[in-house]
Write a structure and sequence with these properties.
Structural class: alpha/beta
Strand order of the largest sheet: 2-1-3-4-5
Number of helices: 5
Order of helices and strands: EEHHEHEHHE
Number of strands: 5
Helix content: 25-40%
Number of domains: 1
Largest sheet: 5 strands, parallel
Length: 106
Amino acid sequence: MRVLLDEHLDRRLRNDFGVEFDVITVEYRGWKGAQNGTLLRLAALEFDAFVTMDRGIEHEQAWQTLDLAIVLVSAKTNRYADLKPLIPIIQRVLGNIAPGQLVLIS
């Protein structure tokens, strides 16, 4: 499964996913600074899922129409130490999520 990590998530997280996940960061892909709508449309062309902490996506974007699953993470901060413990939950969700779905993890 190809997964895109939003630019505000610690890039070290990509190493914590299992081998069944090909995880790339927004910055590595060259999309840093792209607005949410543009970013989601680009992501849907190349990725199966998008992992973010941006709560605006849930309410502002037409994510339901895209061929992309979204995992919305809620944590104390976006620091690696606060997000790393959520990786097993994110992995389970990614294993069951479908395009056009958004799942909130906290």
